[in-house]
Amino acid sequence: MKRVYVPVCALIALSVFGSAFGAGGVLPGDGLTATTAFQIQDLDDFREFADPANAATYWASGVHTELTVPLNLSGEEYTTAVIAPDTDSSSTDWRGVPYQGFFHGNGFEISNMTIDDKDDCVNNVGLFGRIEGGTVEDLGIVNCTLIIGDDSAATRRPTGYIGALCGNFYGGMVSNCYATGSVQASSHCAASTMSSTSSSVYSLGGLCGSFVGTMSDCYSTCTVNASASDYYSASPHSIGGLCGSIGSSSTVRNSYAIGPVTAEVSRFSGGHASAIYNLNQVAGLCGQNYGTISNCHASGTVQCSADNVSLSDVRNVGGLVGYNNGTIHNSYATGSVSASAVGDSRVAYCHWVGGLAGNNQALIDKSYSVGAVSVSASSNNFTNIYDNGGLCGVLGTGDMITNSFWDTDTSGMTTSAGGAGKTTGEMMTEATFTAAGWDFDASDGSADWVMAGYPQLTWQPVEKVDQEELTTLAQYWQMTGCTSTQPCSAADWYTDGAINMLDLKQLAESWLGADMITAHRADMIDDFETGDLTALEWDDYYTDWSVVSDTVYEGGFSAKSAEITYNQHSYLYMTVDTTGFNRIGFACKVSSEFDDDWLIFYIDGAEQGRWSGEQNWQEHSFPITEGVHTIWWTFADDASGLAGANAAWVDNIRFFNAE
Fold it and tell me: What rounded mean pLDDT belongs to the chain?
């Protein structure tokens, strides 16, 4: 056997740094620079890195750590933040060791992270509990589930600083990071004693709970939900699709949120007559902003509701930001915003609600909103709905909204505390915005906006009709019965209920364009010129009308009711798919006993119109929704008296689309 001599110094190096040559133990690397960062190469390495016992090694300021593989945490159980957790859930103040280093995700994802605090109302929750002066970059948090709070606490324990990436980010930078999944927090107290503490959820966001620092090129699609109830007092606040709150001197740019945001305060059974519920600072991107938001957007729906036996107050709700005391520039919101308050015995307030911002106390410039805005309040005593608007609900004294707009058609709002209301057509016209100084000029490579229906930020990927639509067409090819409620309607661009060459033609016409060009199927008609009841699919079982040629509206034929007498009915009946159409029209004629024997027209059993007596041919049309409907005409005799021909005629039945 050949002997191998290993120097003593090499043995020492292997003893100290041995795992630098493989994963699973002490992390490879030295952490001194980005190129010599500690490496997380498998789940064991991640556990090593996340262990608070190793915080001094891996979490300290200036230490670099990098992810070199995707991680699946589906088998892990967490009740607090995975890294840098808060060690004292009984206090809202931070307790623990924060993360202060550099974390390089290298474009990898951490998937299936679940944090369930088991009703412990922990604070500072996320992949990172608290970051102080650290940096996180190029990391995805995918399919996460955060369930934080208490559903039936005996004492009031607020919970806050919760986000998929970081619960409490204080100083430093986050870039090219994203989160998908759900983030929910609750605070429900069953105590019937009064205290100075409210049941509250605060600083809750899809990506970060509370954020102070610099954020760029980040997004969240997380569903964000906050709920609270209390016998005396509940006050959730600072809730957003991306961040719950953004602090002063912070910058968030080129980022967005598209997940729905829901916040609700529900009455506790038998709540106190003096109970006060406040729901405050809720929005699609950020609940509360004291920093600078630029080139950002939000498209998730925002829904807020407070239901109390006493006083409810819902305020500072917006499509982008709920309460703004910083700067919003080159940003927009497209999601709907709704707020409602119920206060049975005292008062219900619903105010400071807007399509972009609920309350602006600083500056909004070159921004817009298009989402529907709705507010409501109800009380047995007093309701107060005020300062709600299409773009902004309320504007502080001396504060400004400049060069900004909202869509009066889609928002349902004609007034706003600042901004200019425009029709949808005007909002889709570039000149509306260039006249206000918006930069669409791409010749110098620095344009902020591009038209894509409504204005879109230039950093956003421009949506085009391409391979994705072709794949959808292939998925549903040759399917029929595609009403608007069926998945296959996604490829029914000819809107005739069938996926075929007509839809392929629409795809070809739209290829690489910004929007799919749809077409409506040709009008569906039965003018009875076939001489029988075959042009449409009439139901032979119920239909007893016949086609005649002696009395017509146009052409050579019409349909006539059967011969009937007292207390009898005659039906012209069909079940039809009206996909692509929104109206039905026909001509009819009646010769009967006035006000006793009737021609009646029904859609799905609901009467649409009736005619009796001697009425010559008249045209009628009625709205009809897309989908499968049962329609029929009935000629009905009553118990006594016959007059005229005792008959009814129908001609030129037409399903069509009225633009």
Answer: 88
CA torsion angle 472 473 477 483 (round to 10): 80
User: What is each CA distance from 221 to 140, 161, 256, 261, in whole angstroms?
Assistant: 12, 18, 9, 10
In 41-165 the beta strands, taken as DSSP E runs, fall at 64-67, 71-72, 102-111, 114-116, 128-153, 159-162
Nearest to 625 by CA among 575, 582, 580, 658: 582
Which single residue is written with the structure tokens 């005396």?
Answer: 232
How long, in residues, is the chain? 659
Amino acid at 336: S
Q: How far apart are CA 65 and CA 85, in angstroms?
A: 18
Per residue in 514-524, pLDDT (tens digit) is 778 887 667 78
pLDDT confidence band for 20 (50 / 70 / 90): very low
Whose tokens are 């839809």? That residue is: 503
Residue 418 class from Cβ within 10 Å (0-12 exposed, 13-18 middle, 19+ buried)? buried
Chain centroid, CA 391 distance in Å: 18
β-pair partners for 359: 323, 394
Closest CA to 654 of 530, 478, 522: 522
Predicted confidence (pLDDT) at residue 413 exceeds the cutoff of 80: yes
Per DSSP (E only), the strands in 266-416 are 276-283, 286-289, 292-294, 297-298, 302-308, 311-318, 321-324, 327-329, 332-333, 337-343, 347-354, 357-360, 363-365, 368-369, 373-378, 382-389, 392-395, 400-402, 405-407
Residues 335 and 319 sit within 8 Å (Cβ to Cβ): yes
pLDDT surpassing 70 at residue 506? yes
If DSSP codes are grouped into helix, strand and coil, which group holds residue 549? coil
Q: Which of 88-97, 287-296, 596-605 has the highest average model confidence (pLDDT)?
A: 287-296
Secondary structure (3-state) at 60:
coil
Token look-up 């970051």 returns: 131
The dihedral formed by the CA atoms of 619, 625, 630 and 632, expressed in degrees to the nearest 10? -10
CA distances from 591 to 10, 417, 547, 647, 649 (A): 111, 60, 17, 6, 9
Residue-level pLDDT at 74: 96
Phi, psi of 20 (to 5 degrees): -65, -10
Mapped onto helix, strand or coil, the DSSP state of residue 533 is: coil
Helix, strand, coil fractions of the chain, as percent rounded to 5: 10, 45, 45
